[in-house]
């Protein structure tokens, strides 16, 4: 049996706190996207474009100042940028067809996706306590589905089924992005990852905007009411992308994606206090269940445990989920650990090749 001191380790507390801050950032991006959708602005790639530009400018400047060669292959970042851009595109596009709550709930598909990817490609091992924590988190979220209030919310949107399909597809890409990000942040570093993701993400986004959204952007009547959520989305995403690698490196992508499950509950809390809405009591039950699951999953984690026994946690980065990413991609939303410290050198090349 663990003592209280052994359970509430420094890494556990940092993971829980940082995870919930990232969840709040995702909640803010959800409100921004929903607000833009209500105003008739259909430019999902354009929303993410500014975020990639910010990443490229800020972290690219640091990279240039360091004058060091890349630690990972440049084409890995091209593929990561492509996957991340399309994950963001699909999930943001879904807001045109379904409700914000549906998007946030279905985005949890990134969790089993990330766990499967890390198990297959990174040989991740999960202990029963970790699996129990994941099960409790997902059970808490499923509770909301049976709420009458939530059932009414899901009915919103012009084409809920199409929106749900887009979310699931985006969540899957977030999982790929999260696993790749966590691998790269381990083999390279956070600055290189953010700068290269920003560079190639901006290039790919610019190409996609010119092909798919040029006419939509021209037809938009920009005003303070439209520009504010647009810029707010980009700033929140920049902060999210900047902090995700930290959580991925310390607690892993499964922890990231589990933390993002509470974004739906934070949205409910905001609606209660900001808009004075009444919500079903099952939302609070779900929030409590997800919180308990997070504590079960992360409780007692130590650095040595994280490397040896939870190789899954360090290997996965979210999303969006995002992360996406951190995921995360969903940014999803997003996973697991990395390779055991004893076999990193021997297995690293093989895992890298598979990715």
The computed structural class is mainly alpha
Largest sheet: none
Low-confidence stretches: 304-355
Cα-to-Cα separation, first versus last residue: 38 Å
SSE order in H/E notation? HHHHHHHHHHHHHHHEH
Q: What percent strand?
A: under 5%
Overall average residue pLDDT = 76
Tell me the Rg in angstroms. Answer: 19 Å
Query: Which word captures the global form?
Result: globular
Query: What is the number of E strands?
Result: 1
- Total helical segments: 16
Portion of residues within helices: over 70%
Count of individual domains: 1
Brief summary:
It is built from 16 helices and one strand. It has helices at residues 4-7, 10-38, 44-66, 74-94, 100-106, 110-121, 128-145, 148-154, 160-187, 190-219, 224-250, 253-259, 263-275, 282-298, 303-308, 344-354; one strand at 320-321.
Please characterize this protein's 3D structure.
The protein has one domain. Helices cover about 75% and strands about 0% of the residues. It has helices at about 5, 10-40, 45-65, 75-95, 100-105, 110-120, 130-145, 150-155, 160-185, 190-220, 225-250, 255-260, 265-275, 280-300, 305-310, 345-355, and one strand at about 320. The model is unreliable at about 305-355 (pLDDT under 50).
């Amino acid at each position: 049996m663990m003592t209280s001191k052994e359970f509430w380790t420094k890494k556990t507390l940092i993971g829980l706190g940082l995870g919930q801050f990232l969840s709040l950032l995702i909640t803010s991006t959800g409100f921004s996207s929903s607000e833009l959708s209500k105003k008739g602005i259909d430019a999902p790639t354009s929303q993410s474009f500014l975020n990639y530009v910010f990443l490229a400018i800020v972290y690219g400047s640091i990279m240039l100042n360091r004058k060091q060669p890349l630690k990972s292959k440049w084409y890995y970042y091209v593929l990561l940028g492509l996957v991340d851009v399309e994950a963001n595109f699909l999930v943001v596009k879904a807001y045109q067809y379904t409700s914000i709550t549906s998007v946030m709930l279905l985005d949890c598909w990134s969790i089993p996706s990330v766990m499967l990817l890390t198990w297959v490609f990174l040989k991740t091992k999960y202990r029963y306590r970790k699996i129990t924590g994941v099960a409790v988190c997902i059970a808490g979220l499923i509770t909301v589905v049976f709420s009458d209030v939530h059932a009414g919310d899901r009915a919103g949107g012009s084409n809920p089924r199409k929106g749900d399909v887009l979310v699931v597809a985006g969540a899957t890409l977030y999982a790929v992005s999260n696993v790749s990000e966590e691998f790269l942040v381990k083999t390279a570093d956070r600055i290189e990852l953010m700068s290269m993701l920003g560079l190639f993400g901006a290039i790919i986004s610019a190409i996609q905007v010119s092909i798919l959204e040029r006419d939509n952007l021209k037809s938009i009547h920009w005003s303070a009411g439209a520009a504010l959520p647009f810029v707010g989305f980009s700033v929140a995403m920049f902060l999210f992308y900047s902090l995700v690698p930290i959580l991925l490196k310390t607690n892993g992508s499964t922890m990231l994606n589990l933390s993002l499950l509470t974004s739906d509950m934070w949205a409910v809390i905001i609606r209660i206090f900001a808009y004075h809405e009444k919500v079903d009591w099952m939302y609070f039950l779900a929030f409590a269940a997800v919180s308990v699951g997070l504590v079960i999953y992360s409780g007692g984690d130590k650095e040595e445990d994280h490397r040896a026994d939870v190789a899954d946690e360090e290997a996965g980065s979210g999303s969006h989920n995002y992360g996406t990413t951190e995921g995360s991609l969903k940014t999803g939303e997003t996973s697991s650990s990395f390779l055991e410290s004893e076999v990193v050198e021997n297995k690293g090349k093989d895992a890298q090749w598979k990715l």
